[in-house]
Amino acid sequence: MDVSASLARLHEHQDRILTILDRATNLIHGDPDRNRAGLATSRWEMARRLREYQLFKHRELFDPMIAGGDPDQRRRARLMKADCILLSEDFQTHVARWSGVDVADDWITYRRAMLAITTRLRGAVMRERHEFSQTLRMAPGPVSPTRITVTG
Fold it and tell me: Distance between CA 68 and CA 73 in Å, rounded?
C-alpha cells in the first residue's frame, strides 16, 4: 500500500465532504421555501459521500493499522474507527428524521439540527485530517496493508 497515495485519497474524500458541507451551510442561511430541495439533495449526496469515505478509511487506514500496528497504533485506530461508526450512525439518524418531511414546516428545528450535525462532521473531518497527517508517514518502498508505519 502506498501511504502517500492513501493520504492523497483521504484528502480527496475530505475535500468533497467539506464542499458539500459548505454548500448546505449556505443553503440553510437562505430562504426555506427556495432551498428545501437543495438541502435534500445535499443531505443525500452527503450520505453517499460519507459512506464512501467510511469504507475507504476502514479498508485503507483503520483496519491495516489495527492489524499491523504496535499496541498504541492499534488502540488509536480502534478509537478512531469507533468514533467514525458513531458519527455515521448519528448522521443516518439525522437523515432518517428529516427525509420525507417538508423541512420548511419546522425550519428552526431543522436549521438547528442541520447546523449541529454539519459542525460535528466538519470537526471530525478536520480532526481526522490532522490525526492521519501526524500519524502516517512514508516507509521505504511499498507498504503492505498490514504494515502501515504509524508515528505519534
Answer: 9
